[in-house]
C-alpha cells in the first residue's frame, strides 16, 4: 500500500442515482445496496473523472493509504464484466436516477394531454434492486410492494393500488430473495411508513413476496398496518 489520491464517497450524501458510475472508465464504482461504492482501491486511478457527475456532492478525492492503481487488474475486471462472469449490481444508467414525479395524484388531465387515465406513479426508480433505502418518497409513505406481473394482470392497477402510494416491484422467484429481505428490512427500519400493502399473483411462487415482506417487517421492528391483495391470472382480486 502507498499514500496516494483516491475517491471517497460520503454515504450520507449519496442518494444512489448512479450518475457517477458510467463516468468511471475503470469500473471502480458500482451502486450496491442503494449507494455508490468503490469496488476495489486498485481500480481507482484517483483522477476524479466522476466528481462532476454527482449532483449531491458526495464524491471527493482524498489522500490515504491504498493499493496502487493496477491497469492489468482493471483490464481483467472490465473483461469479466463484459463477459457476464462478474455480477454488476447497477450499471449506473442515468435512467435509474432517483426522481420524485409528483407529490400528489393529478385528478384532471392537463391541457394537451390525452383524455385517457392519468398515471399514478409518483417516483422513479421502482425496482427493489435500484431504489435507495432512504429515498425521500418513502418518508411517511403508504408503500405498495407489487410482484412484477401484477400490473400486467390487473388492468386497474394504477387507480386501485398505486394511487397515493410509493411503489416497489420485484419477483420473489427470479430475483435475489436474500438480498430483497435485507434491503426491505433496512427500508422498513429507516423510514416512518404509514402502511405496507403487498400485491401479488395467485401462483404459489408469488406468495414468497408476502413471506419476505412479513419477515422484513419483523426483523425491522416496524409497527405498521399490513395489507395483502392476491390477483388471479384472469385479472381479478382474490382477496384484498
Automatic annotation (TrEMBL):
InterPro entries: 4Fe4S_Fe-S-bd, Corrinoid_activation_enz. Residues 5-34, 35-64 form the 4Fe-4S ferredoxin-type domain. PROSITE patterns: 4FE4S_FER_2. Gene3D superfamilies: 3.30.70.20. This is 4Fe-4S binding protein. It comes from Hydrogenispora ethanolica.
Amino acid at each position: 500500500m502507498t499514500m496516494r489520491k483516491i475517491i471517497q464517497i460520503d454515504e450520507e450524501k449519496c442518494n444512489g442515482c448512479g450518475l457517477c458510475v458510467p463516468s468511471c472508465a475503470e469500473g471502480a464504482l458500482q451502486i450496491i445496496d442503494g449507494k455508490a461504492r468503490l469496488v476495489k482501491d486498485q481500480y481507482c486511478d484517483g483522477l476524479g473523472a466522476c466528481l462532476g457527475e454527482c449532483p449531491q456532492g458526495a464524491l471527493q478525492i482524498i489522500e490515504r493509504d491504498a493499493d496502487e492503481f493496477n491497469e492489468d487488474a482493471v483490464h481483467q475486471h472490465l473483461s469479466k464484466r463484459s463477459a457476464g462472469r462478474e455480477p454488476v449490481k447497477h450499471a449506473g444508467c442515468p435512467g435509474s436516477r432517483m426522481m420524485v414525479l409528483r407529490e400528489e395524484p393529478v385528478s384532471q388531465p392537463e391541457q394537451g394531454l390525452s383524455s385517457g387515465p392519468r398515471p399514478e406513479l409518483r417516483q422513479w426508480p421502482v425496482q427493489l434492486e435500484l431504489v435507495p433505502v432512504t429515498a425521500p418518497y418513502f418518508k411517511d409513505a403508504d408503500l405498495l410492494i407489487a410482484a412484477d406481473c401484477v400490473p400486467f394482470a390487473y388492468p386497474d392497477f394504477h387507480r386501485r393500488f398505486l394511487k397515493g402510494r410509493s411503489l416497489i416491484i420485484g419477483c420473489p422467484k427470479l430475483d435475489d430473495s436474500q438480498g430483497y429481505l435485507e434491503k426491505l428490512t433496512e427500508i422498513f427500519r429507516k423510514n416512518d411508513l404509514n402502511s405496507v400493502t403487498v400485491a401479488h399473483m395467485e401462483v404459489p411462487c408469488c406468495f414468497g413476496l408476502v413471506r419476505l415482506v412479513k419477515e422484513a417487517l419483523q426483523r425491522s421492528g416496524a409497527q405498521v398496518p399490513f395489507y395483502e391483495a392476491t390477483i388471479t391470472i384472469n385479472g381479478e382480486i382474490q382477496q384484498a
